[in-house]
Amino acid sequence: MKITDVKAYGFWAGFRNICLVKVETDSGFYGWGESGLSGREKAVIGAVEHFKQFLMGKDPRQIGALWQEMYRSQYFEGGRVLAAAIAAIDIALHDLVAKSLDIPVYQLLGGKQRDEIPLFATSIKPMGQALVDDLVKLKSQGWNVLRATTGVHGSPDSATTFEPRESLSLVAKWMTIARQELGPEVTLGIDYHHRLSVPETVSFINRMPSGTLDFIEEPIRDESPVAYQSLRQMIDTPFAIGEEFTSKWDFAPFVQSALTNFGRVDICNAGGLTESMKIAALCELNYIDMMPHNPLSPLCTAASVHFCAAINNLAWLEHPPYDGSMEDYDKYFIHRPIVQNCALKVNSAPGLGVDVNEDLIRHLPFKYWEAPRLYKKDGSYTNW
Ligand SMILES: O=C(O)[C@@H](O)[C@@H](O)[C@H](O)[C@H](O)CO
């Protein structure tokens, strides 16, 4: 079997561009993968074009060897753009090889360890009673792992003011009320989307009774394990870190010193299934459970389900953002995973179990999109 084409598509679908890669072969088998570098899809599409030059004619079954060649061939190894391009190709290779063997992708990863994947749900309501009501409603629907956000989402078209320190007492107040209303059984966390500094995070946690939060996701930016080390010495809330990491090397300092307690790997950014399986193994060393990031299309969700099925150290997968409301997704994706009873069933159809309507998506326009911008009151830039 030989690779005969590697195509990349970027198209606007509701609230972000979706970046998909299709790998075709002379045997007629093909596979689909997705990249997660939202907002910089053109860079990923360019990288896929480079990789195509040497992937043509190669045997797609040599997934591990092709991964090494993609990662190391340009001397300037790795990085966010290349890892995201490799991720999409690697997932597509798994899809096509599994289809050629008439087996589900999880079988290529060592088989499944569970039949369904537990999910966590997110409320994006702003801080206030509406957030608490929404979390209570989710609990009544059966969700027992819940995540809040700061509730300030901003818009890519206009600058939004965000004062990290001013957010602390407000967020702490409403998370405390949420915990009181939800009771002790529910797992409750917050994604602070790396908007705080180390001392701001300490103040935030200290303003809540102990036991309010089961995890805090990315309170600060994640380039510096030293900053996390200093935070760990001052607070004891478990950390969920890793959605921005692109490799096992990014994860390593956070795993080796047990600086993260949940591994938020994004398989569409961190080099695909090949690299993510290694990251999960690395996390297993220190009994860290995976909590994969899953904010993209049904392709990412399907691949994440196979990953979550095959690893032992799983906490929960992120609830897909498109569920229910995105009718267009039924046109673009055939047999997309559907959430049932707060979980996703592991699909045993060959490959990823999801197909793409290529005739339709090839005509969908790409839209330049920028992530929202947040500024402090003094006009200086702060993290979204
Ligand atoms: O946890 C999450 O899903 C978020 O952090 C993401 O939606 C994130 O904001 C986006 O992927 C950035 O493009």
Structural notes for this entry:
With 384 residues, the chain is an alpha/beta fold. It folds into 2 domains: 3-103, Enolase-like, N-terminal domain (Enolase-like, domain 1, 2-Layer Sandwich); 107-352, TIM Barrel (Alpha-Beta Barrel). It has helices spanning 41-55, 63-72, 80-101, 105-108, 129-140, 164-182, 198-206, 225-234, 248-256, 272-285, 298-310, 327-332, 358-361; strands at residues 3-12, 17-25, 30-35, 116-123, 145-149, 160-161, 187-191, 215-217, 239-241, 262-263, 289-290, 317-318, 333-334, 343-345, 355-356, 374-375, 381-382. The strands form 4 sheets. Strands 4, 5, 7, 8, 9, 10, 11, 12 and 14 form a 9-stranded mixed beta sheet that branches. It has a 3-stranded antiparallel beta sheet with strand order 1-2-3. Strands 6-16-17 form a 3-stranded mixed beta sheet, with no helix packed on it. α2 (63-72) runs antiparallel to α3, α6 (164-182) packs parallel to α7 and α7 runs parallel beside α8. The longest helix is centred in the first third of the chain and has 22 residues, at 80-101. It is globular. The structure holds D-mannonic acid (CS2). D-mannonic acid (CS2) is lined by residues 38, 191, 193, 243, 293, 295, 318.
